[in-house]
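STRUCTURE REQUEST FORM
Protein name: DUF3291 domain-containing protein
Source organism: Goekera deserti
Requested output: structure tokens
Priority: standard
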Amino acid sequence: MAVDLAQVNVSRLLAPLESALLAPFVAALDEVNAEGDRAPGFLWRLQTEDGNATAVEAFGWDVAGSHGVIVNLTTWTSVETLADFVFAGRHLDIMRRRREWFARATEATTALWWVPAGHRPSTDEAEDRVRRLRRDGPTVDAFTLRHPFAAPGHVGPPPRAGDDRLCPA
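Status: completed
Returned output:
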């Protein structure tokens, strides 16, 4: 069976999305999203008519006293192609500044899992995977870039678990 890699990231906002504090982040969204859309291995991302997902309502149970959450939900061809995008270019620039805009996470905020090729995961599915990762740690059902699992039926070496290139930020 052919598979794609699903990825969700949820971030708790330190201020309202419309605030001056988050203005640099919001200003960079279109450029970062466009870079991601062109990245090798990129397949799909959740977005509204505005071209991003800032208005998507999900993970309401995870607000934890913040000014809300934003969700990034995408699919990719592999762990490596996702990592190549996440830890390079404009996205890496934004990641390096994330403490300016988002609350420090005390538990998993990013989950990866394998889906049938062409499947577009829902926010409910993404919420379930984050909950699984928080409850069980990395498993084939919900894992991280630092602790990846090979795709079902994969032949060859597994993804580079613990490879610092996969989590340099």
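Reviewer notes: The chain is about 25% helix and 15% strand. The mean pLDDT is 88.
Form closed.
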